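We store chain and fold; thus.
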Amino acid sequence: MIDRKPGRHIKILLSLIFISIALWFFIPIKQALVFEYQNTGKVLAYIPISKEKNFKIKYTHSIHLSDVVESYTVTKEKKIKQYELMYEDFAIGMPENASDGEIFEQKDGKYYIKNMNRTFPLFDLRIGKVRANHRVIYKKMEYPLANYIEVGTWVRIKIDNISLFQQLKGVNILEQ
């Protein structure tokens, strides 16, 4: 004779549902450009990456007080590849020419280094307090990072899959 306890199947079913929801909540599934606090893994802000894989970081150079735009794309390996640099002044901290395989151009008073092939798994940035006014440009829209991340904060920028939990704790820059 089989001894069956009433409600045992319901408890198992509820346990499976609870485990499924927990897994769904914590499994990283959405690819994003992630701005995390230092190197802690804590997501401060993010931009969900869709078909558009290109983004730019724009800032005001602290000495020249002119704009610098760094252009990036996301690789298939989830790395960040810099493919272009635009700046307005030659001086401290700016390149004087292109490296091997790159193209240097001057157009409309601006300098461009194109055909760059510099790939990074991540890079760090301190959100400028005084002049830098760091902005991220995605899908031709400009988003000031100081609107989402406290100025002076050191952030690690990378491409990563984030969970629903991380999405809820961080700020989706595109929805602000």
Notes: The chain has a mean pLDDT of 90. The helical segments are 8-26, 164-169.
